[in-house]
Structure prediction request, 59 residues.
Amino acid sequence: MSPESPPPGSVRSAAEVNEQIRALWLRAGGTLSAQERAEYELLVIEWAEAIRGQVFEAA
Prediction:
């Protein structure tokens, strides 16, 4: 994961994670390297967990 990523267990909003995903794609120019793909996968998992948390809070 990139150096600017928070430590595991940190809680960020889905919007914050989504912004980092968008920045990753922009930096990569639309084609991810193996390392960027791994970072992307972790970000997507974090984003999904953030979305799930927002749904539970709303309920």
